[in-house]
Amino acid sequence: MLAIPFEEFLVQTVNGLVSGMILALVASGLTLIFGIMDVVNFAHGDLLMLGAFVGSGVFLSTNNFWAALLVAVVVIAALGALLQLTTLRPLLGRDPLTTILATFGISLVIQNYALWQWGPSARKISEPIGGQFQLLYLQYPVYRIAIALLSAAIIGALWLFMKYGTYGIWIRATTQDRVMAAAMGIPVPAVHAAVFAIGAGMAAASGVLFAPLVGVTQTIGLDFTLRAFVVVVVGGMGNLGGSILASIFVSLLEAYASLFVSPAQAVIVSFVVLVLTLLFRPTGLFVPTPK
Amino acid sequence: MLALRDVHAHYGKSHVLHGVSIDVGPGEVVGLLGRNGVGKSTTLKTIMNLVRASAGSVTFEGRDIVGLATHRLPSLGLGYVPEDRRVFRLLTVLENLRTGLDRPRMTAERREALLEKVYGHFPVLRERRNQAGGTLSGGEQQMLAIARAMVLEPKIILLDEPTEGLMPRMVGQIRAIIELLHAEGVAILLVEQNVPLTLAVSDRVYIMEKGAVRHEAPAAALRADDAVIHQYLGV
Amino acid sequence: MTPSPGALRTDGLTVRFGGLTALNDVSISVPSGQVRAVIGPNGAGKSTFFNCLTGVIRPTAGRILFDDDDITGLPPYLISRKGLARSYQITNILPGASVLENVRIAAQSRHHNWSLLRHHRAYTDVLDRAHRVLASVGLDSKAEELAANLSHGEQRTLEIGIALATEPKVLCLDEPTAGMSVAETHQTVELIRQIAVDLTILIVEHDMEVVMGLASAITVLHYGEVLAEGTPSEIQGNARVQEVYLKI
Q: Are residues A81 and A193 in contact, defined by beta-carbon separation less than 8 angstroms?
């Protein structure tokens, strides 16, 4: 085996953690929705993209990144709630296939709407925090660290909300036992709509956060969305903590793999992890062993 | 207060309730006896609108509650303790209670008082307040399920086989809780297989068979003459 | 149907799940042609007992003898071929197939023949048999109906038909009248009485009217053990049994 310089190893650790946090942000919205409604939201990546476009529109008129982030999150969260009410609520309790088809349909509509509304050319949102710093042997963009910290902050806020907030307890109770939650007076239909809104809002937040790195196009976040599905499965469907751990785990593995192979090949690692998980521990890696 | 009139219900094609009529007055403890599979639990589920009544009426304090969403019933004054308890297994004991406590128009003082009250009745729940519901013993889970319904301050509690699978000592405790709720003026519709317990705590008893009520009598009458009990529940 | 033996005997049948003993040393003997009811309160071990007989659960200890043939631990399909059929508590029909096809498939399992040349002949045999079974359970007029379109009571009857089509010597009926109206219950009791003429029948049932009306002998299970055994009137007069039922 080739000897890997310790510095390269450290740099890849930082890289892995940074993309792990971004991935966790994308995945947590997905897993939250699955956990409570058993809905695999195939439109998650499109809500992310839509969030980025809304953000770029706000950025164009205000030149303020934070305003763009906030407006995008609120608008897409509202859209998420609307989509849940109109499309998914009538399908609750039906064959999961019907909800998969429904979210897939939403995905197609959003994609084509974006193409029609904004055209194929890329838009830009400037990073709010510029500059670079010296990380060992290379110049590392400060904004990448900032994204990771922001993602961590958003996930942390979600975590606290779920752990201590009244509505967080409602969400967890509904996730565990929808029927009993209703019998305790928890307005289950409203909780479902709210969770879909939170998931959509988190997708929008990731979209706006990515935008300065890659530019706003129809394919923004496609990469991350695909891997988000992988980590949601690896982390145990519907398990928030598991998805976050799996995001970091898979991203670190990929980062380390890129020490040996090209980054494009390193992506294979996540799918190898997916296949191995499905083969040997289909309930997920980061969940307690089912009894 | 709670009145079922000629209620029918189906599970898929199976016609499980064939016209059930039951009344529970304010503060009254009413027992619902019958063999396995005669529709006792389904009757409670139909009241909670977890099973849709296909015909007949269910009224609570004069208001028609058929078709009313389940989550709106607790605010009217209905508490439900389902069979197999259904505590939220991954939520702590305190969080389980909070599902009922954290509701609109709840003041901090009242919330505290309610929590103290159920902790007073069930000291073990205070001890285990930060423990996950799923790690409690069967009897403790049953207490949590009842406590969870109590914090809703219901006018009636629908209690589905609270003693099933419990040790005799726990059965005595459940009995004490039912008597305590009775003394506080909470009405109870009690589904049970345990005949002596039901006859001891109830004011009136209904006996179901094949999805319909076959007999209704004051519990005292059944305690005095158990011929009916033997006919419907014995061998 | 040829008159057949069909005596069933269990010898010290014991089932443990982990630390829980679901059945403990259950020894019963059902002579050929008897209708035997197995009753008991919730959790008495009735379902476990049936699951053992039909091979769904392998007993921890003890033997099951079917016409003196040891069938302990055989897989369900072999037990079924030996002539022990079961009608399930949970509906177990193919809803998308016709009533006739449901019964024919079951009949085929008995008439399996590897010879290609005999295929056609075997097919007509099977079809005849399926029609005869439908006639015996009173569903012949619904032969071409999709099973999904039958009423709940008719579906339960079809299940009995499916079990009969395998030409069993022993038929295990798991709560045959559960979820039925009073009228449907009476019809089902009548049907069981008719088919009982040339079969040994084991029946688990909560409805005592059904049990007392059908069974010539009753075994009472309690906490996985045989609490009592006897004729219906003996069981009805047994104080211990009454106590267990009323949880006194």
A: yes
Q: Do C152 and B13 touch (CB under 8 A)?
A: yes
Q: What is the CA radius of gyration of chain C?
A: 18
Q: Would the CB atoms of B229 and C43 count as touching at under 8 Å?
A: no
Nearest by Cα to C142 from C102, C84, C182, C200: C102
Q: How far is CA A116 from the centre of its chain?
A: 25
Residue A177, amino acid: D
B91 DSSP assignment: S
Q: Does B171 touch chain C (CB under 8 A)?
A: no
Which pLDDT belongs to residue C118? 58
Sign of CA dihedral A257, A259, A265, A267: positive
- Regarding beta strands C61-66 and C69-70, do their DSSP bridges make them parallel or antiparallel, or are they unpaired? antiparallel
CA distances from A14 to A115, A243, A270, B214 (A): 35, 19, 18, 73
pLDDT tens digits, B53-94:
999 999 999 999 998 999 999 999 999 999 989 999 999 999
* pLDDT for the residue C2: 41
Strand pairing report for B2-11 and B14-24: antiparallel
Query: What was the pLDDT predicted at C214?
Result: 93
CA B122 – CA B127 distance, rounded (Å): 9
pLDDT digit string, tens, across residues B88-116: 999 999 999 999 999 888 999 999 999 99
Residues B100, B95: Cα–Cα separation, whole Å: 9
Strand order of the sheet with strand B53-60?
B14-24, B2-11, B53-60, B63-64
Distance linking the first and last C-alpha atoms of chain A: 41
User: Which of A33, A55, A54 shows the shortest CA–CA distance to A198?
Assistant: A33
Where on the phi/psi map is residue A244: left (φ > 0), alpha (ψ -120 to 50), or beta? alpha
Residues of chain A with pLDDT under 50: 290-291
> What is the C-alpha to C-alpha distance for residues B92 and A56, in angstroms, rounded to an integer?
43
Residue of C nearest to B163 (CA): C247
SS3 letters for B192-204?
Answer: CCCHHHHHHHCCE
Chain B neighbours among C 198-217 (CB < 8 Å)? 206-208
